[in-house]
Amino acid sequence: MNFNKRKSCIAAALVFSAISASSAMAQSVVLGGGSSLVGPSITTEIGDFGADTLALTYFITSSGTGQNAFLNDNATFFNATLTGSVDYANSDAALSTTQITSYDNSTFATTDKGGPLIQIPFITTPITIAYVNGPTSSTDTLLGPQTTPNQTHSVALNDSDLCGIFSGALTNWHQVTNPDTGSLFALSAPIKVIYRSDGSGTTDLLTRHLAQVCTTAQTGGITFLETQTFTSNFPSGFPTGATFVGESGSGNVKGELVSLASQTTSGSPSGVAYISPDYTNTFLAPQSSSATATQAVASLVNRFITNSPLGTADIAPTYQQADAAVKTVETSIPNTALKAANQSNWVPNSANPTTGYPVSGTSQIILSECYATPAVASSLVNFLTDHYSTAEFTSVVNGNGFDVPTAYVSAITADFLSNTSGFNLNINGTECTSGSGR
């Protein structure tokens, strides 16, 4: 059934944010969940997909929860009342080689004959640096590109600024250097860092960049490592004098920013957070149900753009600039059967790109190669075919501040959604025994 015919069906897709679990499982569905970063966009896509062979569900939780639910085939990670198999998950953090090997040697892949897992890029994304009560054109010279509706210039930050703010070494805007002027920001406002307290792929993408670029001189002795758990970079606790507030899920991070924005008295703190574009504003994500018109977002300096006038190295966190960053490592797309079978090869590492927005990466969808119910496999293949190949779905993805990783589409289609590559890695292909699988 093609996309337009499906849209004309009565919509049976169910989308969840950890609610109505028991009633939902009373019917046959394709169960998934995980990343809150892709939450607004994937729920819209599922609604547009409508009633295929089976409807899809998605529980908005976190990347770490999605990984654990899938790897353990345990739906209670999404909600304590859920039963049934976890058919797919989304995670902005890549599965480790150890996780993949352990799963592929587990009973889920062998005894149950679910086969190896599949991990493929679902979207490309920037990780934005959102803030409230920060520098404005009335207090400072701003030369960065537009990042918010009805804006001429944005606050710009460079890697040294990011390292200082997120380590707690810099605790007030007047300690932060404006890279477009070379001077400290004039605004005096204490900085409250809002971080993800759960296992977060958004955290993973931020710390992946910080681990590449930060020095201990910039961080006050903190050594950043790539991780889903922000606090693990602070084994002795947060620095004295710094203010950090943890929130679970992208929606709660946005809620903390909104709460701080309402505090307008003298000396009120400025909140700084890392968050995906669909939770920011309608310039970056015009179709997102979680975006507002006013959320301020910084542009970031790409350190590799040199010998340029002030301001021209500042990059806005648009999906086009995230694409440009990911394209710097597109030569790593698997092109042989051996490379394609190694699922670690499917996640591009653009942690410190030579062009584009500096904090960019991909969010992955995690699947099983074999499903016991053919209708589950059919619905997932049809959904992903629409996601990767139709203008309607691309519009939804772009409208939420992301893009489909187009350079990967032909390889993903050939290897996993069909078998035109001849690699025998496709969902419910010849490698899968009839009636067995997840």
TrEMBL record:
Signal sequence coordinates = 1-26
Residue intervals of the PBP domain: 23-381
Concerning InterPro entries, the annotation shows: PBP_domain (IPR024370), Phosphate-bind_PstS (IPR050962)
Q: Does the keyword Coiled coil apply?
A: no
Q: Which Pfam families match?
A: PBP_like_2
Q: Which UniProt keywords apply?
A: Signal
Is Signal given among the entry's keywords? yes
Regarding protein family, the annotation reads:
Belongs to the PstS family.
- What protein am I looking at? Phosphate ABC transporter substrate-binding protein, PhoT family
